Every structure is written in C-alpha cells, then in structure tokens.
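Re: that chain you flagged

S.,

Sorry for the slow reply, it's been a week of failed gels. I finally had a moment to sit down with the sequence you sent. For the record, here it is as I used it:
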Amino acid sequence: MKRQILIAAIACIATAACTPQDRYIAITGYAQGGTYSVKLNMKGSGGMIDASPEEVKAGIDSVLKAIDNSVSGYNKGSVLSRFNAGEKVVPDAIFKDLYRLSYEYYLATDGGFDISCAPLFDIWGFGFTSDSLPSPSRVSAALSRTGMDRLCDTIVTDADGFTSASMILKRRYENACGNTGEDMLPELNFNAVAQGYSCDLVAGYLHSIGVDQMLVDVGGEIYCEGYNPSGLPWGIGLDRPVDGNDTPGKDLQGIFRAGPEPCGVVTSGNYRKFYVRDGRKYAHTIDPKTGYPVTHSLLCATVIASNAAEADALATYCMVIGVGKAKEFILSRPDIEGCLVYDEDGVMKTWTSPGLEFTSGD
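Prediction finished late last night. Pasting the structure tokens below so you have them in one place:
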C-alpha cells in the first residue's frame, strides 16, 4: 500500500487543477532515442497561455529536434557527428553553449566530468560504437586523446565570419600534445549532460509562452518549477538501483519533493547500462583519469541543482568519484542537494544532504 501511495503521489492527472482557473495538461513524445513527458499548467501568471496543446507540443518537438541536429552522436548528420568525423563544421548556438557549460563543469569537478572522453566511451562500448573489453594499450591510446584542458575553453569565430571548431580544437590539441596526426583529433560526447540541457531548453521555450508551472522529463532527467495539479511541490520517484530494474517507477527507492523554485533533478547510476564478461560487471561510468569503468560501491547519485544541465553533469561526477568523495562534494556546495544510494557489506543504504526532502520507499 505504501508504494502505491508513492506512485500515486507522482502521477499527474491532466484534468486535475489547483483552482477552477488552472488547467494542467500532459504532453508526451519521442526524442533522443527515448521518450519525453511534459506536464504543465496552461494558466500562467499572466493568464491562460495563448497556444493550443498541439501548438505547445510542436514547439517542444522543434526544440528537441534542434538539439538532436546539433549534439547527438547517434544522428550522423549532426554537427557533433561531423565534428567527430574530422569535418570542418560551423557550430550552432546549441553546440557552442553546451561546450561552454561543459568546460565550466570540467573545471568545477577538477576534470571528473569530461566530454572529451568520447574515445574512452567508444572503446568500452558505451559511446557510439559496440566495442567492449579493450586491451590496456587501447585504453592508454584513447586516454592520450582526452582532457578538456588540452582544448580551447571557448569556440571562437574565424575572421571570415565562420567558425571551424574542428580546426581550432585540433590546433590547440596539437600544440599541447606535439602530435599532428589525424588519429589525435579530439572527439566529444555530450551524453552526460545533453538530456539535462534539453530539459532546460524545453523549459526556456515554455517560459517564452508564459508557462510558469511545469515538470519536464527527457529520458528521466527532470526540470521542474511551481506546483503539481494537487497544489504540492512536484513529486519525483527514485528507482531502486538494482540490476534489471529497467522500468521507471516500477520499483522505487523513494520519492523527492522538488520546487516550487526552478530546479533540475537528475539521477545517474550503473544499474541499467552495463555488461558482464567472465563474471565481472563493466558499468558505463568511466573515470576520465584512469580510462576504466568505476568499481566502487556507489549505485546511483541524484543531484538537485538550479538547472538540469548542472544536475546532470554533477550527478555523473558523483558516480565517478564514489560515495565518500561525493558526500564531501555535495556538502561543500550550498547551492545543490544530493542523494546517494550505495552498497555497504551487501546492504543497500541511502544518504541524503540535510536540505533534501526525501521519503524512503522501504
């Protein structure tokens, strides 16, 4: 019964309302290889939104398509895919903004969050290839191509008005490494921040049409603000981080309350993206400093920050550094909250920062 109550708490009914004037709707669709869900109040602070639900959905889809065309590594025609292939590209505003943010997160985490680790993700089979179990020599070779400190901290415009990120980054990379071979060209992978960033951009579009109460969920990464149809802060379920728990909401570790202030809520874990070889589990979290998948006891990390892109990046970072250092990091940042689920001698335990409202599902 308790779990049924928790699930009911996070279910948003499109026809429910806080007041007779409120009108909550739910919009769903497909994006970035998965699904998205947006729940919003069509009544903003300035009155009813001057757009139909169909028009709002079209706007959301347009934002997500623009992101896909810019920074998706699975879209072979995207700016990112062409950049990684060594082409001279003209990055759009999304690519440049996400690169800028990623560099900031790289510095804030002392290199623990690093979008230049695309070669490492690829050889381990968690990037844009199906490789697995690379030899130590392949890991060493891939590691030599990574590190955002070897790249420009921003993407600038050429004198002729066009931007060639591949040439700018290649030049900076060659100067740092002393290698001019094509095999040393840097490659990027935005997967650890792109969905959180997508939530923020969708929220930005909704703000532009007057929406001020919403929950945006893109592939499980969340941005929310305001109140849900019951007049409460949004309830967000945390899936129990056990291998095989592949259905969101089916088995909950607990539930967060987030809002009414704008915030991003993102969970990173190693219980869905992994493979087992010779009895050993290889998870998708790669330590940028060692080049190998992490092996510590932290099962999942949730971060609540002022926006979903930052929450996404910092949740990934916590998974890299492990439970002890993650606790220290979260407590050192008064602007974020966090929840860590970890294994201690075969027992699953949960730690939350002091300001986080969390109800256990046990």
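What I noticed first: The chain has ten helices and 15 strands.

Talk soon,
D.
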